[in-house]
Amino acid sequence: MQVDWKATEEVEWQANERPTAARIAETWHMKSGTKAAVLHALVEFSSWARPRGFRLLHLDLGDDAYYALLVREDQLEEIVQAAEDAGLDVQESDDFEREQLRDC
After folding, report:
1. b/e for 27-38, b at 16 or more Cβ within 10 A?
2. pTM for this structure?
3. First to last CA, the chain
4. How far apart are CA 75 and CA 3, in angstroms?
């Protein structure tokens, strides 16, 4: 998913495309509403995905948008390694949340 840093209204519909592609029958509903920062909406979605066996992997492409991939937890290590081998700056959801929320 790709969400501009100020486009909270984009998070829910984009996030709900991911579970469909991953064959998760449930739909995520953003509890924080569109008044929340994009960062908080992504953390909320990440918390929802984790007990379903998925993790959010964040990519830093150096611009003013958030990029994230929903990956199966059992494939996370392999995907992180492949991304790093390709020269991408990636963060697992726990590291992303710690880094991003420490300033909030």
Report:
1. ebebeeeeebeb
2. 0.86
3. 23
4. 24
Phi/psi of residue 22, nearest 5 degrees = -90, 5
Write the CB contacts of 27 (distance below 8 Å, at least 6 apart in sequence): 16, 19
Q: What gap in Å lies between CA 14 and CA 56, rounded to an integer?
A: 13
Tokens (6 digits) for 81:
């390694």
- The pLDDT assigned to 98 comes to 87
H-helix segments, the chain? 11-21, 38-49, 76-85, 93-101
**Sequence spans of domains, the chain:** 2-101
Q: What's the pLDDT tens digit per position in 32-42?
A: 777 788 999 99
Q: Is the pLDDT of residue 103 over 70?
A: no
